[in-house]
């Protein structure tokens, strides 16, 4: 049975035992050797495939190339075998923290992998690259890797359920540092005291502002979670050497809650598995069918439907205005409520367009489809009729959609909204959608065959057919893999693919 852990700020002269701190409770969950249940194992396999799919699609993109080159410029650390880098030959290894960095950027670059949304936002698949990197470095087997990934998902999702970061403009990767450190602790079989120190340092070093996802969004958007994973690896290394970290990191009077979140009078109730309770949080997360911010997923599906049913809506001459009535988050983060003129700029970066629901809805409406490259191409964004229609799209917060967005009832939790289209002839078209088609409650919930199809589509341009089959075979046998097979749990690009990618030079 899940236990709710009450968290508040303590003065320095107030007693707060280590065992009562949130970081220690997280560590105890990580150190609990409970078995991973079969349906959780199945979903972990799905998400390992999903991560590899989106990483394959991003191999030649500049931010991924830069991170990969940084990793390749670092040698394997002396006390392990090192870890693989997405795209590179199996024998090419780097130190695990740099593998976590390079692979984390590859996974996150296209904003195309899994998501969990509650009090905070998250992409819990970001836990996988650092945990896999450490598993390869130390020679762990597939069963240990599965246990580590289950913990990473559990801790991040539990924190996301309870503690809002974005409300205080703190980037959501502040929940990822602790979760990845906890997952690595589980993988390695560390004791709670050691994991506790790693969690504290990982949180302390991964708190940053949300400017990485605001205004003109830069390539750091993909690097930020990779940095959190890298910091988690380093935090575990330091804790294993017997070093300590700021404490109490959450509850201290100069800690994260007091000065970065809700302040000294704040309190939260964080749900964590009870001792002996299975870690099942991954089953509450969901992946993306489309390469766009998760809150755009349902809107893409609705726009495709409307454009196919009513082709006249694709012509801006027929449309007076389009209003998307939606949740607070969608309106203020990726909608017109953000006040970002860049969200209506046809010369904006891909990262910015990915966070513009007016743009995304327009293109999906006109094209009846969404593509991870073509839909963001500069010539697509700059098309005259698209710009004209795009500038007629606005968002508005609807209290009911906000309530459903934050609902704890999975049967009514929603990430969509209601569209109102006013035509120039005076007529009005209305429609609504609650969840994306690929959502567990959607029209076409994603299953194993969908994850595999997504992988094949994204991997075929850059991997050989033999490599595609090799990876899928390994991934689907994940819990039974030997250490030697875990060391090969990566994707190797076709000859010449990486040679044609940017290879920027830097300090290293």
From TrEMBL:
It catalyses: (2S,3S)-2-methylcitrate = 2-methyl-cis-aconitate + H2O. Its EC number is 4.2.1.79. One of its GO terms (molecular function) is 2-methylcitrate dehydratase activity. Keywords: Lyase. The keyword Phosphoprotein does not apply. Residues 21-267 form the MmgE/PrpD N-terminal domain. Pfam families: MmgE_PrpD_C (PF19305), MmgE_PrpD_N (PF03972). It comes from the Bacteria. This is 2-methylcitrate dehydratase. It comes from Microbacterium rhizomatis.
